[in-house]
Specification:
alpha+beta, Alpha-D-Glucose-1,6-Bisphosphate, Chain A, domain 4, 3 helices, 22% helix, 48% strand, Coenzyme Q-binding protein COQ10 START domain-containing protein, COQ10_START, START-like_dom_sf
């Protein structure tokens, strides 16, 4: 199982405003050329997780999954997990936290294809793809100059995800 985290400090954007922008997944395909489609499999209802179907370009094919999404406006967290799809395990969250003059937006994801013999080849490719898609979303929502940072093995670096 592999985990990674991408984050950005977004100055001058209130946390509630930032979170409101992040929960509208219908705009994501326009923000990243890797996202082929996102469709609502089950529309949101009070107290019931939203389900979305994702199709994302992966190598010479398409990575597909359906995920549940719990959107919590009070905690400014959108937690998700795979219901069905190409991963053996897949889940994570978008979280928005207050900062001095704006907010910090965090994308975290954990995934496993369930094919141990191919993990050393597939996992780094999938990580780059997931970080690139999340980076495209962050820059598309908050502006192209948004500086992205990635956390790996307790080290934070400026992300090269584009």
């Amino acid at each position: 199982m592999r985990s990674t985290q991408l984050w950005a400090v977004v100055p001058w954007v209130a946390p509630d405003v930032a979170f409101g922008r992040l929960v509208d997944a219908t705009v994501f395909p326009a923000l990243s050329e890797e996202i082929r489609s996102i469709d609502e499999a089950r529309p949101p209802a009070p107290g019931v997780p939203r389900h979305t179907e994702w199709a994302v370009a992966f190598r010479r094919g398409v990575l597909r999954w359906t995920q549940w999404e719990n959107i919590d406006h009070v905690r400014r967290a959108a937690v998700f997990g795979q219901v069905d799809g190409d991963f053996a395990e897949f889940g994570g969250a978008w979280r928005v936290q207050p900062e001095d003059e704006g907010c910090r937006v965090v994308f975290e994801v954990t995934y496993d294809f369930g094919i141990e013999s191919l993990a050393s080849a597939m996992d780094p490719i999938a990580e780059r793809l997931l970080l690139r898609v999340a980076g495209d979303i962050l820059r598309g929502v908050f502006g192209p100059e948004t500086e992205l940072r990635v956390d790996r093995d307790h080290h934070t670096t400026i992300a090269e995800v584009g």
